[in-house]
What we know:
Layout: E1 2-3, E2 13-14, H1 17-32, E3 37-41, H2 47-55, E4 60-65, H3 68-77, E5 84-88, H4 91-94, E6 105-108, H5 127-134, E7 141-144, H6 147-150, H7 157-167, E8 170-175, E9 178-183
Parallel strand pairs: 3-4, 3-6, 4-5, 6-7
Antiparallel strand pairs: 1-2, 7-9, 8-9
Helix pairs in contact: 1-2
Amino acid sequence: MIDIVEGFEDMVIYDDAKCAFKGELLLYLAKKHDLHTFVETGTYAGEMVKYVNARYNFDRIYSIELSERLAARADKLFQDASNVFIIHGASEESLKGIRQTEPFLYWLDAHYCGDDVTAMGEKITPVYEELEVILNETDHVIVIDDLDNFHTWGVYGRQLAEFIKSKKDVELSVVDTMLIIQPRKI
């Protein structure tokens, strides 16, 4: 399916196999842990929100986007979805405003792409700052995307894993380009 949003005709995003693979992993984790809230950082074109919203009954879906243009596009795209909330702002700050009353499923995908579409924050990726907020909360399930690019952004796997483990006793696993953080089994 193609999503063309009025005023954003230059941004045409197609559903693709990679989005489906990642989306199915997210849906598996949501079902496995009985999660009802999905939080995404880095909305971009809204393809992951669209994917999970069409296939799972999340009570609430929050997507945070730094680019004003991309946030406006997502607002239009999801204007009829009463459970989807698009937040324009820096993810590391916006995450603090989402009330966490139970475990959430987090999809961390906020980063600058080096183009004219995405926005650049203080860093290319705010993953450490995002994790600082999230790991201090309840036992969430967190999936971090684009591990294959992290070294080019100055984020290295071993240091990231050590940082996560220093904050919370969790299970870490890697699938494709994603780091999965789950509560440790008892």
